[in-house]
Write a structure and sequence with these properties.
The complex is a heterodimer of chains A (414) and B (105). By secondary structure, chain A is α/β, with parallel strands linked by helices. In chain A, 31% of the residues lie in helices and 25% in strands. Chain A contains 11 helices and 18 strands. Helix content of chain B is 17%, strand content 30%. Classes of the chains: A alpha/beta (414), B alpha+beta (105).
Chain lengths: 414, 105
Amino acid sequence: MQRYSVFAVAREALRFHKGWQRAWRSPAPKKRYDAIIVGAGGHGLATAYWLGRNHGIRNVAILEKGWLGGGNTGRNTTIIRSNYLQDPSAAIYEKSRSLYETMSQDLNYNVMFSPRGVIMLAQTHHEVRGYQRTAHANALQGVTTEFIGPDRVKKLVPIINIHGPRYPVLGGLWQARGGTARHDAVAWGYARACSDMGMDVIQQCEVTAIRRDGGRVTGVATTKGDIACDKLGLVVAGHSGVLADMAGFRLPIESVALQALVSEPIKPCMDVVVMANTVHGYMSQSDKGEMVIGGGADGYNNYTQRGSFHHIEETVRALVETFPMISRLKMLRQWGGIVDMTGDRSPILSKTPVDGIFVNCGWGTGGFKAIPGSGWAMAELMAKGTSPLADPFSMFRFREGRFIDESVAAGVAH
Amino acid sequence: MLILTCPNCGIAADETELSPGGQAHLKRFGPGSDDSDFEGYLFLRDNPRGVHFERWRHAMGCGKWFHAARCTVTNEVFATYSAQTSEPPQDVLDRITARRPDWQS
């Protein structure tokens, strides 16, 4: 692999940029792999990457129906944080956040991780108590967060209106080491690193059936022919239910559309991420200057990748109250992604009723921040059959009543 | 915007007037059922990419529950029908197969 560095840039500049190589190969599928990962989004590629890096399993294919990182990896609002209430969540998200800190160096690919800090606003007394509790829990979990008062919020975010008529800002949960990263670069960086380890990233290759023999997976049928494998990882977010159906089991997952939008680019005005869960909106400013805005998910199952208009209206209305200066901004574009929601709003990293099939899904509205940690845990689970980070997230927890109930803890947008 | 006609009051209601209620025709389990029955009833849901039967409530209108058959990819509404049914009526199934000849329930 051609390493990227300041010297490489200088060398190529002198050669009129004619010497750059492709970042990853696009091979035809082999007949057989040790492991196949379905889904070349962030989570799938990270799983493959850590299978190779941590467990020496490198005869791996990553199959993608569309193009690399073209699903939710390229559709999210890129927020990275780990201020969760429940221990299993805090453990995996904090692992993930810490891996983001070194990702650019690990992958030799600039993912533009920007630890600019994340504030979750407390706008009701209930929320104040909730976030104080989370801050105490985080202290015990080794996650650095603090509860800050409204003056400090105003200092960190000068454009905020803390005296809103209906929902004044009463404080906030501040995670200074949270932030954002370039979402496409995460997928591209992992793809390049996987390809460099000899793995095959195969795009435009849809899985149409899962082959089983006596309760064990033997391979997959795809639009590019049959491929055999020992282990199969399903990492397809919103379409997990469709693949589970092919493998003959059900998942506690429902898919809904979640939307985001960006404004026209403006000069730098806000250098932290602000989430306002009571009024249902969150916002950050991208390096290009666009205000990146996200809000609530649709309430009903759909795969439209559009989302309902009234949710955007709700979100924007709330944010205009919170940040009066954005009222005159024009919206540049809006899009939707399909998020996979579980009953307790926590993900599933699990073995399945079929031997050799593993599933990683249910990240719902907050999967981007979890990409490296999820891949780390999923790779360990696939290689060893058990993983301290993944085990609490088994799909069997619903039968056993062991919920990781972030739906109560986080309420929304987590 | 999604528009569903409430079969109880006959009003064509915008989705802002409605509350979604999840998958329709769930089989309920009571005391004495085993864990996997409860898991299925409480958590496991059909999540089809296509025809879906679901519950809605005309929350900002007549307040009553009803059922809808809708395509989750295109949001095409095939029919809305009474909530007092334990499975989709034949005329609803006929309307779906007229629009989706390959569909199997």
